[in-house]
Every structure is written in structure tokens, then in C-alpha cells.
Amino acid sequence: MNVLAIDTSNQPMSVAILKDNQLAAELTVNVKRNHSIQLMPAVDYIFNQANLTPKDLNLIAVSEGPGSYTGLRIGMTTAKTMAWALNLPVVAISSLEMLAANLSYHNGYVCPFFDARRGNVFTGLYQVQNGQMTKVKDDLNTSMESWLEQLQNIDETVHFISSTNHQFDDLIKEKLGAQANIIQHSMNLPRASMLAHLALEREPTPVHALKPQYHRMVEAEAKWLEQNQKR
Amino acid sequence: MKDKNELILAIETSCDETAAAVVQGGTKLLSNVVATQMDIHQKFGGVVPEVASRHHIEQITVVMEQALTEADVTMEDIDAVAVTEGPGLVGALLVGVNAAKALAYAHGKPVIGVHHIAGHIYANRLEQEFEFPLMSLVVSGGHTELIYMEEHGEYEIIGETRDDAAGEAYDKVAKALSLPYPGGPQIDRLAQEGKDTYNFPRSYLEEGSYDFSFSGLKTAVINKLHHLRQKGEEIDVENVATSFQESVIDVLVDKTYEAAMDYGVKQLIVAGGVSANKTLRARMDQRFADTDVELAIPPLYLCTDNAAMIGAAASVEYHRQNYASLNLNANPGLMM
């Protein structure tokens, strides 16, 4: 299978191509830039490196969120349109799961998270055993403090992995002490190749139905619902 | 030499309509699909940008597919993909721009970025050929501009609003009258029943200026309503609508007429969402009836945002081979 994978869910951008199920080319950029400008040239670059064209693809993988709303839409619009245009299956994968997959060879609990502002995070909980990763808790949008308190109930080490920043490091250490292991360096960056490998095992989404998973309602909608439920 | 009858698939997502169309040779509309979100934004009293963006991504491939199907063509037949790159809501524009680039890249076709206002002007070319030099009045919720054109693809803005767009003033006055969104058509409907009794101001700005200003008028209406409500006096909604509309239309028609005469144009094009306004259409007709200037106002379905107009404007750029590169971005404040 030749797979194109795209992640623009947060500040890092990662694109990859698998050729016959093997990684042929991958590009990950972690600078504050506009994904809308960078993404197509990056895709074009890896096609050239992999010596493939869009017509050679069999599958497209994309991160579905959570993450930056605008970032998610840039990657997903591109993946969705290419899949529709080339009549290819498209698989959407949680951007948290993609990040957790960086630790697929560590046994234990993995907690990927992204900053969701005002002390909140988008997060979830995964467990790795012998190279197999299973979801323990669905992705959610929650306060980091209460989330960490829930994680105190786990007796094992939890590996925290986040591409966004280290602003929660102190809070994690305070709440979980030695139970927490904060992943450092480049291991905490998303890699589109992980998306591609995960996608090989998953069911595709009907292309027209593909949409980001924001895990948060638009503020105007939330307010409207609140006002109209009171009545 | 480029094929005169090229086929362009065009995409427009600058505000709250997800639209795609196929246009042949810049003049012939083969399909024109518009998925409107109007009823979704109605409950918020205006367009919520994040809500609009979320709907665009859900609709985008559906409308593109429908546009190809209705035109009875495939991507193999398409010569270029065109898209509105600005101005507009950035999150909304981004969906169209990235869809256009992905589609074009997948099929090895060129991409053409189009200015939204150029699109509104070129909507007319789907109905009748341009005659240069021409003047265009573009009036919508986001724009009020007088644009002079000596040839295809050359735009000179000679006048524009210094504050609110005409359509924006309509929406705000409608809101002050507690009319449902969008307010323009509601006011136009009520104005058919009333009289100009309130004598709201008409802002012509300084002598010789082709610029517009509607915020003073909007404030005058809102203050008047406030005043009447405070005194517990009855508000004649129809008369308020007529008085407000008369003020807007007098200025629009007078300034456009002046500009058309000063520049000696052969054609006047009225474009944009507000050109659907019945009174504006009738008044323009009257004013230009005894002149040599040909008046062109597109049919209603081409006045509001659509992708066919983007395809029509893109045709000119296609023949100039004015293609965008893969790093084309949404540009919410794009200049003409």
C-alpha cells in the first residue's frame, strides 16, 4: 500500500508517504508558521522524494483532532479533497493517539495532551503492552488539574507526551511525583508516519462525512444552547 | 494560445455559502451549486465565523462533486481550478483555498486565486458581454465600492465606504428593529409599504468624492428608535424602513451616476448581495434610462455569493496564465 499521511493539528506539521507499507519520505516541521502556506509544498516535496505521484496512492491518513481548529481544517480539507478527487479511502485518526503511538514500544500508560488554554487540555489515556496500544479513556477536553487527580488512581508510571509546550510540567510533578514520566526532546513531536501505520489497520470514513473532531463546541453555540435550555 | 472555451471548476467559501461551479470560457455557466448556511446563522443574529468554517469543511466535497455532476464533466475535462482567496472570513476562506490546491494538485491542474469582488463584477459576464470602459458598483454586506475598468482584469477603485458597508448598515438597522437576520431583504420588503417620513441624513461627503459613509445614517436611525422608545411613542416600522432605505439608495444612485458620467463609461454594472434590492434596481433603471450607459444587473441568483462568478473572473486570469503556486494562502484583507 502507498499511503499519504497528513498532520497539521497543532504547531508542528508532519507529512509522510509509505511506499509498499514502508516509510519512504517524511517531513516534520516545528516552527510557528502558516500550515496553509507550507502544507502543499511539503506534500509535493515528499512525493518527489518518494518518487511517487498522487495517482500512485492507495490510501490517505489524516489526524482528525483534537487540536487547533484552523490547523485541523487545513490538513483535513487537503486530505478529504485529495481522497475525493482520487477516489481513495481516507482514514481519520485521533491526533492524540498519533502522538501516543511514538511510545508504542514502552509498556505502560501513555497520556498524550495538548494545551486547550485556561488550564484546560485535550487529552486521553492509552495503554501499551507488547507493542500493542489500546485506548483506556476516550479523548476529552478537561481541566489539567482534575485530570491529573484522576490519573493518581493508576498505580503504574504514566508517560506524558505533548508537542505543545512544557507549561504543565510542574503541575504534573506536583500531582503525580515519581509516577509521572514526562517525555522530552524530539520524541514528543507528532510523526505522520505513525498516522500512516495506524491507518493501515483501520476502517476508512466515507469521504463526504469526514470532519474534524474538535472536542469543543463553538462558544456562540454553547451560549445559545444555554439560553434556550433555560426557557 | 489558450483554448477560448476552457472549463474552470470554481470554489467560493469566503463567508457563509459553500459553493462550487463549472464555467466555460468565462461566459457560460454549466453548473452553479450553493450550499447556504443562512438558517444556521439566523439563530445567532449574524454569521459566526467558527460555525461557518465548520460547515464549509463538511460541505466542500459534496458541492464540488455536485458541480461536476450537474455540468456533466469530470476532472479530466477541467482546465483549471479557481478559488476565492480573499477578502472574507479567514477560517472560511482557508477551506476553499486548501480544497482548491488539493484538487488541482491531485489532477495536475493549475490553480487560480480570485478576488471576491472581481467575482461579483464578473457575475454579469455570465449574462451579457462587458463593454469597456465600464463602471461597477459593488454593494454587499462587506463591500460598497465603485470600480472603474478599462479592460478585462484591470480594476481601479475610485470610491469605497469609509466605515460600514451598505449591507452592514441594513443588517444593523434591521437588528435595531428586531427583524430577523439577514435584515436587508426584510427592510426592502417593509419599505415597499412605508413613506419617507423620518428624514434621515444622506451622507455625500466632500464635493467630488466617490466615497461612501453609512455609519452616521445607521447611528441616526438607532438613536431615533431609542428616543422614540424612551418617550413611549409609536414606531412606524414601515416608515423607518422606507426612510432608511431612501437615504441609502439616494446616495448610492447619485454617486454612481456621477461617477459613470465623469468617467464616460459605456456600461454600468451593479453587483453584490444588495443589488438584489428591488428599490435599488428600479431606481438605477430610472436614473440611467435616458443615458447612453447600458445598465447591467445580474439575476438574483448571481447577486449573492456563488462560485460561478469566481469561475467567470478566473477565466481572464487563465488566459493570462496568471496561476497561483502551491503556497497560495487565504488572504482575508486582500487588496484588488
Adjacency order of strands in the biggest sheet of chain A: 3-2-1-4-5
Mean pLDDT of chain B: 95
Count of alpha and pi helical runs of chain B: 11
The description of the largest β-sheet of chain B is: 5 strands, mixed
Which strand order spans the largest sheet of chain B, edge to edge or round the barrel?
A: 3-2-1-4-5
The most extensive interface, with participating residues per chain, is: A-B, 34 and 32 residues
What's the level 1 CATH class of the largest domain in chain B? Alpha Beta
CATH architecture of the largest domain in chain A: 2-Layer Sandwich
Rg result of chain B: 20 Å
The CATH top-level class label of the largest domain in chain A: Alpha Beta
- Largest sheet data of chain A: 5 strands, mixed
Strand content of chain B: 15-25%
Supply the key terms.
heterodimer, A: 231 residues, alpha/beta, Nucleotidyltransferase, domain 5, 2 domains, 5-stranded mixed beta sheet, 7 helices, globular, B: 336 residues, 11 helices, 10 strands
